[in-house]
């Protein structure tokens, strides 16, 4: 009979059930730490595996086991993945070398009288798994990636998007295009990227990747190295799927960055082409994650490239394959893909750089019809964010918005500003200020000194304020009215040459 919750929980523990998952977690962590200290090894930390151990045991008991040292000839990723996926075992690392050691930690569900039998049983089962993994690895190396790549015509990428061979060819062309824009004089890099792209999907036909799909790319790089490919090629193949998660590790080599970008741009363009786009919380093809990866690779890798031309090329390659596209792909496809990636830029800049939403929007609005250098756009956002903290900024924006509303609302025959029609000194002063600051701003923009460029705008504030104080824009004389509106249009254009300041929200308004 259960009298209360406390007695019930104590009764469970007497029967070998620890009901509190956090207590089980602490127990496992403490037991593993004790084993590692005693054995002199370091745990290969895996949060997912720890969660699995917590929620698949009732009374956890960690034990150490071992396997034949000969298996260490197999790549570590195969061994650790086999231990994790097949048995739920933790792998261990040599503290000094950082290399895998022939030992593992298993978390059993209870403590038996003879734990030696449980250890031997785990070792015996793992030995069979590792023997299978070694067999696959040895067999895979008997066939070169180049030969496997020829069989990708028989592998479906997606029922609406043809074969993996077609995808691989698109990735190759796109990677070549990206390199030609990123480093046009680097022939060696271009050859490495093209060669890596030629082989990048071939490991899908290997035994190890068939057994462990999460090792695709990793095994391709391993086999490319075994086949005598260059370090640049094998590293690029290995890094093509990085980052594997939203905040995961990024490709470290430029060839890996190019290949990863090409693969993801093709993925987004292809699925948008056939109308398989994310809706609400549904994103079965992880397009949002891939778009975030594109943004991270470019910004964190400081890659100076026009993403717009890359997207155009990716779309053209998909269209050239003859797949049946969605109704609006040709007319609105570019805009939809760009807006999809822009949404990831907004999120990245908001979360990672803590930028204001209106600042982000002001820069992106002006960027949509221009060269899409995301590194450049982020520099502009940071400069704009910085200038918003100046006390004169909000009053400046109020003056700008007054000018912007007038030229947006009024109808007039715009002509070049005629200085002969100026009736008040403030008109001439504003015109001269624009002319002087425009030259300074142009030089600053060319040098990417965006803080200095924005200072030119800030310095216009006295002239703008004086103008609105002294004159009536909608003068009775149509010629004077038109000339004043043209002058304000110069102000509007000057501001908008940097960003769409109409998006900026005056703080406290």
Give your account of this protein's structure:
This protein has helices at 5-14, 21-39, 47-55, 76-87, 115-140, 145-149, 164-182, 187-199, 207-211, 218-226, 231-239, 254-273, 287-300, 307-320, 329-351, 357-367, 374-387, 393-409, 425-446, 450-458, 461-470, 478-496, and strands at residues 41-43, 61-66, 90-94, 100-108. The protein is mainly alpha-helical and 509 residues long. The protein has three domains: 14-140, no CATH class; 149-352, Hypothetical protein af1432; 390-503, Isoleucyl-tRNA Synthetase, Domain 1. It has a four-stranded antiparallel β-sheet, with helices on both faces. The chain is elongated and about 105 Å long. The relative contact order is 0.06.
Key terms:
61% helix; 22 helices; 3 domains; 5% strand; Isoleucyl-tRNA Synthetase, Domain 1; Hypothetical protein af1432
Question: Can you describe this structure in just a few lines?
Answer:
The protein has 509 residues and is mainly alpha-helical.
Helical element count? 22
Structural class: mainly alpha
Q: Give the SSE order as H and E letters.
A: HHEHEHEEHHHHHHHHHHHHHHHHHH
Number of domains: 3
Alpha carbon gyration radius: 31 Å
Strand content: under 5%
The CATH class of the largest domain turns out to be: Mainly Alpha
Strand line-up of the largest beta sheet: 1-3-4-2
Q: Mean pLDDT score, rounded?
A: 91
* CATH architectural designation of the largest domain: Orthogonal Bundle
Poorly predicted sequence stretches spanning 5 or more consecutive residues: none
Main β sheet profile: 4 strands, antiparallel
CATH topology type of the largest domain: Hypothetical protein af1432
Q: How many E-type strands? A: 4
Share of helix among residues? 55-70%
Gross geometry: elongated
């Amino acid at each position: 009979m259960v009298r209360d919750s406390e007695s019930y929980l104590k009764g469970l523990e007497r029967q070998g059930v620890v009901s509190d998952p956090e207590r089980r977690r602490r127990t496992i962590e403490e037991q593993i730490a004790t084993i590692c200290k005693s054995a002199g090894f370091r745990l290969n930390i895996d949060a997912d595996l720890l969660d699995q151990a917590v929620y698949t045991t009732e009374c956890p008991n960690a034990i150490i086991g071992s396997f034949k040292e000969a298996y260490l000839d197999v790549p570590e990723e195969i061994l650790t993945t086999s231990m994790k996926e097949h048995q739920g075992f933790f792998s261990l690392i040599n503290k000094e070398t950082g290399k895998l050691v022939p030992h593992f930690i298993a978390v059993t569900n209870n403590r038996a009288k003879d734990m030696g039998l449980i250890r031997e049983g785990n070792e015996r089962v793992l030995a069979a798994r590792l023997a299978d993994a070694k067999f696959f690895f040895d067999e895979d190396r008997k066939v070169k990636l180049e030969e496997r790549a020829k069989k990708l015509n028989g592998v479906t990428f997606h029922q609406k998007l043809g074969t993996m061979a077609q995808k691989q060819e698109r990735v190759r062309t796109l990677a070549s295009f990206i390199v030609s824009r990123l480093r046009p004089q680097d022939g060696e890099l271009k050859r490495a990227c093209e060669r890596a792209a030629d082989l990048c999907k071939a490991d899908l036909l290997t035994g190890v990747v068939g057994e462990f799909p999460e090792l695709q790319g990793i095994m391709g790089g391993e086999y490319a190295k075994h086949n005598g490919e260059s370090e640049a090629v094998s590293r690029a193949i290995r890094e093509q799927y990085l980052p594997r998660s939203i905040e995961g590790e990024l490709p470290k080599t430029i060839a890996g960055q190019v290949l990863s970008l090409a693969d993801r741009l093709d993925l987004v363009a292809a699925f948008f082409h056939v109308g398989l786009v994310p809706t609400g919380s549904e994103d079965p093809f992880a397009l949002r994650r891939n778009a975030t990866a594109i943004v991270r690779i470019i910004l964190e890798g400081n890659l100076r490239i026009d993403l717009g031309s890359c997207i155009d090329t990716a779309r053209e390659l998909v269209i050239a394959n003859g797949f049946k596209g969605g109704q609006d792909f040709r007319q609105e496809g570019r805009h939809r893909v760009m807006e999809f990636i822009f949404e990831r830029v907004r999120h990245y800049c908001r979360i990672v750089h803590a930028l204001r939403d209106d600042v982000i929007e002001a820069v992106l609005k002006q960027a949509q019809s221009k060269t899409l250098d995301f590194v450049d756009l982020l520099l502009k956002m940071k400069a704009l964010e910085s200038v918003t903290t100046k006390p004169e900024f909000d009053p400046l924006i109020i003056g700008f918005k007054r000018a912007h509303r007038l030229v947006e609302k009024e109808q007039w025959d715009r002509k070049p500003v005629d200085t002969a029609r100026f009736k008040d000194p403030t008109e001439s002063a504003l015109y001269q200020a624009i002319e002087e600051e425009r030259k300074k701003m142009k030089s600053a923009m060319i040098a990417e000194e965006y803080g200095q460029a924005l200072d030119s705008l800030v310095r216009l504030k006295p002239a703008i304020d004086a103008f609105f104080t002294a004159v009536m824009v909608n003068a009775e004389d149509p010629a004077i009215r038109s000339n004043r509106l043209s002058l304000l249009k110069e102000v509007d254009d000057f501001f908008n040459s940097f960003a769409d300041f109409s998006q900026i929200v005056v703080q406290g308004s």
